[in-house]
Write a structure and sequence with these properties.
By secondary structure, the chain is mainly α. The chain contains eight helices and no strands.
Amino acid sequence: MIKNFNSKKFFILLTIVCLLFLILVINAFMYLPQNSVNEDIAINRENAVNRQIASNENEQQEETQQTAEEEKPQKTLNVKLPKDEVDIIELDSPPGVNVSQEESATIEVAEKELSSEEKAEGILKEAANFRASKQYIKALDEYQKVLTETTDINIKASAYDGIASLYAINKRYGTALTYAIKAYNMFPTSQREMTLARLYYKTGDIAKATQRVNNILRREFADDKW
């Protein structure tokens, strides 16, 4: 009798436990979908808001770009002067004084005529710089350019001196002597005659080298006052 009672009691408890577990499972399934739906709704709502914000920003950027493009032509409009009005004012003129195109052209021509010798001297200095930096081919080109730029015999003689020095540096003493003679004949000086003496000596003509040195000594001693 006791044994049957215990069996029924155990069966009742087991049944109660199963019912409670079933109730919990049902509640859990009912809760999960509601949370999932709520979360999906929240996510969709947030995405919609973000899309709306991005759309507004894009529209603002497009409006800003369109406004900038519309304003550009207005900022650059009529900036250039007509071609006839450019370069009329001489830089050295007093403020407020206009120089006509004909006068400006006359001034430019006069400056070119006056600066031809200065231009040749500038080329001569540039050639000397090339020679000092051992760029001998460029130096030779510049010295030859001087000969075509000027009619001044002193400047041309200096160009011949430079060419002679370039050939002497490269131990081509015969060619160097040819240009040194041109320089001396064009504008003779004691220094140029001494260059001739050195080149005659280098080419083995000791007699002419001695003669050139004697010429220099006679001139120098003739100028002595004692």
